[in-house]
Write a structure and sequence with these properties.
Blueprint lengths: L1 H10 L5 H11 L27 E6 L5 E5 L12 E5 L1 E3 L3 E5 L5 E9 L4 E8 L8 E4 L2 E9 L2 E5 L4 H8 L14 H6 L7 E4 L11 H9 L3 E8 L21 E5 L1 H12 L4 E4 L1 H16 L4 H4 L5 E5 L14 E5 L6 H10 L1 H13 L10 E5 L5
Parallel strand pairs: 1-17, 3-12, 3-14, 4-11, 14-16
Antiparallel strand pairs: 1-2, 5-6, 6-7, 7-10, 8-9, 9-10, 12-13, 13-15, 16-17
Length: about 375
């Protein structure tokens, strides 16, 4: 569309082709637009002793104002009748180690199940993997069936999730530079985790403990849940310079009828929907996009249909949000799709300014780190 419009301007003599190319270039969204400097020592390597003890940077979407608070202050920013939506996915022990017949070591990292005994995985070995490779593991022989883009389809000796939960390790993110500990078995899991399938935690939800949830209920804040099984693709970097060229990874999600009804009830009462994490944002906005595709104007009427399936929704600047009014999220990697989502919601410059403040104020970053609440103060 933009190319056709530019062609008409050039044909009419309103602009030179050279000038149009410069305008089009500078209108592109580039990966480097989302870069920031992060000292490595600010990357949290362990969780705090208490889940809700972390810090919370509050960013006002309307004014760009910044406030330094605590996670425990979250109820102060919510009002009776507001709806907080959480992700109830459960992290699978998704990393298993095995060996080839030659003795070479192979790392198997689950991406997602494909059936009872087949799955898509990431395979890492010192030498190239070939179709039909037999990998010996403590739980039996795993066969590499075929490569599918960056992933491998494998066949397992027992049901996928049972196999990984019995023989696997907690798949800590690559930026946590230490061995997995017993503490991670508990803390890299939310207190309300129910549905098995994630290979990475929905990190904003890691901040919630029973006292914080009780305080929210006492404030008459409503709670609802979606399920989005976070895949290992969440850690994949954006390699294309032009963000439009990036192919988003797929993740499985479910937005139930009960959650849709809770959202519509909040809308009718004039209350807000708060997403606890980018995974919740992605699930809800995927459901809204599906609803819109069925000619139901969710954005204007507040109507939302239950939805389940795989989402490749890439939320970046220019995206029209249909459901979510406020967002609680951790701090994300430079140039990542998750940071782009937050910038789409609150504006690139305000978000990057907030990140610079977080670095200067020595916030803790990434999965076991602190949080940021993106809201509009006058709505609270």
């Amino acid at each position: 569309m933009a190319q056709a419009y530019g062609g008409r301007l050039c044909a009419a003599g309103a602009i030179t082709p050279w000038r149009w190319r410069r305008i089009a270039y500078h209108a592109r969204v580039l990966r480097t637009d989302f870069a920031y400097d992060l000292p490595p020592e600010l990357i949290a390597q362990t969780p705090l002793p208490e889940r809700s003890a972390g810090r919370m940077l509050v960013l006002d979407r309307r004014t760009g104002g910044i406030d330094d608070r605590r996670i425990r202050d979250l109820p102060d920013f919510l009002a009776p009748g507001d709806l907080l939506v959480l992700n109830d996915t459960r992290v699978v022990a998704a990393r298993v180690f095995g060996t080839k017949a030659s003795g070479g070591r192979v790392e198997i990292l689950l991406e997602r199940p494909l059936g009872e005994r087949e799955a898509l995985v990431h395979l890492r070995a010192s030498k190239p993997i070939r179709n039909g490779l037999q990998i010996s593991t403590p739980g039996g022989t795993v066969e590499a069936l075929a490569r599918e883009d960056d992933l491998w389809r494998i066949r397992l000796p027992s049901p996928v999730l049972d196999f990984f939960d019995r023989w696997g390790q907690v798949p800590l993110p690559p930026y946590i530079q230490r061995p997995v500990s017993e503490l991670d078995q508990q803390r890299y899991q939310t207190v309300f985790a129910r549905e098995r399938g994630a290979v990475a935690a929905p990190t904003a939800s890691l901040h919630f403990d029973e006292p914080l949830l009780a305080e929210l209920r006492a404030r008459k804040v409503s709670l609802a849940f979606v399920t989005l099984h976070v895949g290992a693709g969440t850690f994949q970097p954006v390699r294309a310079d032009d963000v439009e060229s990036h192919v988003m990874h797929a993740e499985r999600a479910v937005v139930s009828a009960a959650t849709c009804e809770a959202i519509m009830r909040a809308r009718r009462a004039g209350r807000r929907v708060i997403a606890a994490g980018t995974t919740v944002m992605r699930a809800l906005e995927s459901a809204a996009a599906s609803t819109d595709a069925q000619r139901q104007p969710c954005g204007s009427s507040g109507y939302l249909e239950p939805w389940s399936g795989e989402t490749r929704l890439f939320i970046k600047p220019g995206f029209r949000f249909r459901v979510v009014d406020a967002l609680l999220t951790n701090f994300h990697l430079p140039e990542s799709t998750l940071l782009m989502l937050v910038c789409a919601f609150a504006g690139r410059e305000p978000v990057l300014r907030a990140y610079r403040h977080a670095v200067e104020a020595r916030y803790r970053f990434f999965s076991y780190g602190d949080a940021m609440l993106v809201t509009a103060q006058e709505d609270a």
